[in-house]
Specification:
With about 450 residues, the protein is of the alpha/beta class. The chain has helices at about 15-25, 110-125, 150-160, 175-180, 190-195, 235-250, 270-275, 280-285, 315-325, 385-395, 400-405, and strands at about 5-10, 35-40, 45-55, 60-70, 75-80, 95-100, 135-140, 165-170, 170-175, 210, 215-220, 260-265, 290-295, 310, 330-335, 345, 350-355, 365-370, 375-380, 410-420, 435-440, 445-450. The longest helix has 18 residues, at about 110-125.
Amino acid sequence: MTQIYTVLTEEIPNIDEIKLMLSLIGVNIPDTISIIANITGDTVQVRKKFDGVWNLKSDAITVTIKLFKGKTSSVDYMLFNGDVDLTKGNAGEALVILESTKTTDSASRNSAVYQRITKFTTFMTMYPDFKGIKVMFWCNSIWKDKLTLTAMVGMRLMDTLNIKMYSLNTGTIINIKDTYTITPYYSRDDIIESKNAIPCRKNNQSIRLSRVNDNIYISLKLDQGKGKLSGKMSNDPNVGFLSAVINAFEKVSEYRKNKNKYIIKNHNIKQNYFDKSPKSKLWYSINDISIEFEDCIIKNRPELPKQYFTLESNMTEKLATILYDWVSPHETIFSNHGGCELTCIKGHNSSSINVGQKMSRPDIVFRNDERKEIEIIEGKLEKELGKGIKQLSNTHLEGFIGQVNKLYPDYTIKKGLCITISSIDSIDKYKNLEFPVKFAIDNEGFFIHLSQDQ
């Protein structure tokens, strides 16, 4: 009998994440199976049709893969039984939820661990009776023999919150908990002592914890310093730590749950930030837990979203760039699909360059080795086509292109567009643009992938 499952993702579908989720519920699939996009049309014709769905099939299993859009900070993947109604956006019946990143401890201690935990604490707040499996997955990542103290504390918090941890290293799945002997916390003082044991860094505001009876004091900076983010809750790794440690404190003090009081000190958040009742990730992670910000008054806390996600039913800019990425015969060396994780710029062999969060960047970059060309692609809806052309034509991408040139000094840079239009039949009106349309899809799912010669 064929087993039927559905996978929802905000990312370009990846076989490694799906195989891991299935294996955790006892379903193992052969390495020979690959993900297939639901594309119809004569292979001789240029025009084909995509229905927004991918499939993974064998004699014993069928997995339907669809894109979703989170209503809040959401995990990257969810696995469901095939007969579950997903139209209401209820994620509570998921068999497995999974957050995936390529960032490792050595690349960024905070981003690799703390920044990810918010995804799980938000989910757990929305679905406190969740019975499925929670997974943190570091995909295609190489870890050192010893973890940093920061990562060790973060992973112990994950273990306390019953989050399983795996990494994929040169094709092999590694159980992080077993490899690094991760143990959960069992008391509030254990958490405090462990975090405070990390030495303070020079010229850095280190996180410190203390407790007086049921009052727990947490000293940490929650903004990003100078500029427009000063005074606003914008330090994602520290927000992640705060949501994780509060939930861990609640978990280890189950008999006094909701009796702990959390006082946040040295946070650097201004009162006018709270006056606007912002919908920060933090509120969705702690919901009704008692928390105070020193020298500030929290006037209103937002309610949790009514649903966790909506299915991507329209041909969006994000779906267009993901599909173009999927069908292109050339190597993708960088992608920045809307709402997906930012990748590094891949060079030949194992070389790569990380892209700064504030650096202007395109949506996809392909490498054509036959022509020795790098193709930089900007994705846009039809109504924003002019904006895409402007981004490709001015100095907007100079910094990014400079990084690409470091990896590919003997390659020629080409630029093009990936567009979502009302009807593919009107594609000819865009044939004389400053930059060529390399890929186009319309609202019905009909798409054209234009060759290098067109």
